[in-house]
Amino acid sequence: MKRNSIFSLPLFSSAVLFLLLLLAGCDGGTPTAAINEHAPSEATPPPSGQFVRFYNWNNYVAEETILRFEKACRCRVLEDYFSDHEEMLAKLAAGATGYDVMVPTGNVVETLVAQKMLRPLDKSRLKNLDQVKPEFLNQWFDPGNEYSVPYGYSITLIGYNAEKIAELGLPTDTWALIFEPAYLEKLQGKITVMDSQRELFAAAFRYLGYSVNDTDEEHMREARDLILRAKPYWAAFNASSYIKELTIGNIWVAHGYSSDMFQAAQDAVAAGRPFTIASALPKEGAVLALDNMVIHKSAPHLDLAYQLIDFLVDKHSTAEFSNLTGSGSVNMLSMEYIIPEVRNNKAVFPDAEIFARLEMLKDFPRKERRLMNRLWTEIKVK
Description:
Layout (H helix, E strand, L loop, with lengths): L13 H8 L29 E7 L5 H11 L2 E7 L2 H9 L7 E2 L3 H9 L33 E14 H7 L7 H4 L1 H4 L6 E3 L3 H12 L8 H14 L5 E2 L4 H7 L4 E5 H13 L6 E4 L5 E10 L6 H11 L2 H11 L14 H4 L8 H4 L2 E2 L6 H16 L1
Parallel strand pairs: 1-2, 1-3, 5-6, 5-7, 9-10
Antiparallel strand pairs: 3-9, 4-7, 4-8, 4-9
């Protein structure tokens, strides 16, 4: 799932920040190891030789958290970024090594395990694992969490210009807002949907009453027809700039990620816009993306890899992550450290009833994947 720029919010008092700097001490790292020609090279290792390489979504960690870890462990975190899973998998398939900790979404964890790309975890080295909410453990993609530790989550939903949508009298709690002509006529050219076949088909599936992972050919064609009926009203397929478009008022409705909508809301406030950006979870259900930390099989700095994972899953780090990105915390003890506007936002922390309607995307079998690719091509060219 693509992530965009992080915004800043007042988070903790200086006294609490001082306390956090004292937490989660580390025991050092491993000496600098040789990195082959495929390895990340964006930063130079520190003179001490103590560093850990972190392969993550772009801007998907609080800078303050990394600085605290570096200070506590007397090391450097060398960050390398990917914008989508295809980029990550292609780089690893080409022979990239030298990464220590990586952050794939659930279905990609399953793929990496099948490809024997990951190192099994020694859970005795993860003191904070017992802080993780039980609902995020022992998932289908990694039974028993043999290879992965939950990192954070986001939800695909609807973001919108609250004042404009209220003025038009349109509902925001249903995927009908992006699919039904009766509503779309009032939004002509002011709505974008994700340029992602799986995400857009997932929204259509849920609106039609099917699972986001439905592989029935008739249902897939029904979803295609629903999308084609709505397409003339949409301004664009957009997976990258909808935050900006919402923030400046060029569009009024966007299909996208909860963390992006949270950022758009903050950006609109910071820019003094005469409108507010809100987000809503459709009652029919939506996609939940659970991101996870894993250790690459060739990780050269294993001690620091475990220390980084344990530090990032700690209650203070996960609270910082939620406060600064609008993504959901996986830590059951973090809520008291999360600011009210995030903690009380159901698009970030849905209640049990809403959560029960969320599904994670799973990889399709080859035959169904080919069919969806053909249907997606039809959608884009018509």
